[in-house]
Amino acid sequence: MPGTLYLVSTPIGNDGDITLRAIKTLSDVDFIACEHIKAANVLLRRLSIEKPIIECFGSNRLQITKQIMTRLNQGESCALISDAGSPAIADPGEYYVRACLALGIRVVSVPGPCAAIAALTVSGLQTGRFTFEGFLSKAKKSRYEHLEGLKNERRTMIFYEVSRKLKATIADMSDAFGDRKVIILRDLTKPGEDCFSTTLFNAKSKYDKPAKGEYVLVVEGYTD
Ligand code: SAM
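# S-adenosylmethionine complex -> structure
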């Protein structure tokens, strides 16, 4: 009988956010597939877990997929972890989920931290209906098309951004959406975490220099 792929969420900045089930799953599986060995080793050392690890988010994806699927088909179990948060959210985890499902291999969620949900829930914006937009493309044309397509979106929108592109992203959002409420969350769950509730136009003047940290932007949906 084939084994199981467990999608194990890991902390996004605070070690205390690992769940009891995540620890048990990481301890029980035959092997762990991770985004970067270095980040996985830091986590596993803290949890005193020793397991065979395969780095699976690199360029040799086809070869690694074959290796992982073969082991799962032979009955082994695997925990998939990303560097932080929920695997398959804004990382290539979804690729492994699809590969398993296509082969009839069971995929089980071991839920936990996710930066998008953490940000949304403290934003104060409407949480009843929301849309996760991930990262905007680096390419000017697709960034523009993405934002233009969201101009009339009424649901609260969640974006991920890296610090070096924050300034440009806020400027592009201001151009596309006009002045709207935006909540800018930096380094959630980390010691210097910050939640800045403002508008896109104000944010544009505040973030006029390159920023530091990891960011989620929660943007108010369109209102008449
Ligand atoms: N899978 C992860 C999750 O569940 O949130 C997201 C992975 S994605 C490659 C990394 C991005 O998530 C960062 O660039 C940032 O936008 C966001 N992020 C991750 N940790 C964060 C944190 N502690 N505070 C704010 N944003 C964070």
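# post-check
The helical segments are 20-28, 37-46, 61-73, 93-102, 115-123, 140-149, 166-177, 200-206.
The pocket of S-adenosylmethionine is lined by residues 12-13, 82, 84-86, 89-91, 114-116, 160-162, 185, 187-190, 214-216 (CB under 6 Å).
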